[in-house]
Amino acid sequence: MVESIIRRAGIISFSVFLSLFCFSQKEFNNWYFGFKAGITFNFGSPVFLPGNPYFSGGWKMEASVSDSNGTLLFFSAGQKVFNRNLVVMPNGDGLLGGIISGRGPFIMVVPFLNDKNKYYIFTVGFYYGSYTPSVIGLHFSVLNMELNGGFGDIEPGMKNIPVPMGDSAVNQLTAIRHHNNRDAWVVTKRHGLNDADYLAYLVTSSGIDMNPVVSPSAIHRPYWGFNLNGGMKDDHIRISPDGRFLVSRDSLIEVC
What we know:
By secondary structure, this protein is mainly β.
C-alpha cells in the first residue's frame, strides 16, 4: 500500500494550498479560482480581485503563483496559463489538465529547485460520467518567467511532456514536500485491466525522477474504473498534513 511510499520517501508535515508548495512569505497572497473569483491578501484583510477569466464553478483545483513580494506571476486551472495581466501566455493554451470544466484536481505546480524563474506544471486528464474522452494521462510542462518580456511563457518543446507510467492517470493528483524540506513528491494513480497503483515521482534539483515509487491500491476495477451510467468513481487524493496517510475518494474511501 501507500505506506511504502511514505516509508521510502520519508515525507513529513506540510501544508498545500491551491496546488502550491515549497514557497514562503507572500507567494500565496493572490488567489484566482472558481467562477471568475479572485482574492488578494496583500493588504491584510482579503480584497476582491476583478477580471478573473476563470469559469470552472469552483470544482477544479486551480494554481495561483506569486513572488515573495506578493506580485502575481501566473495562474492556471490546467488548460490555459494566464500571466499577471490576466492574458493567456503565447504558448500557454492547450495544456492537458482535463477536457471540460468540472471536478477534480487537474494541476500541480512545483518550482524548480535550482532556478527561481522556472516551474513544473503537472496536469492529469479528466473523466466524468458518460463522457468518453481519449486517455490523457499525466504530463508536465515547464514555465519560464524570463520569457515573453518577463511575463512568462511555456518553454518551446517543454509542453505536455508525458510522464512514464502515468498514461492512464485521470482526475487524481496531489503533492507533498520531501522530509529534506527541499525536494517534492508528486503523486497520482493509474488505472487499467492489470494496474491499479499509486505512483510517486520525486522532484529534485536534477529534475523529475521518471522511475516512480509504485504502491498497489486495494481498490481494483476495470480500466479507468468508472460507472458508465454516469457516476464518477475516481476523484481526489490527498496526503495528510503529518505525511502519514494518503486518502483517496475512489468509489470507496481508501486510506493507505
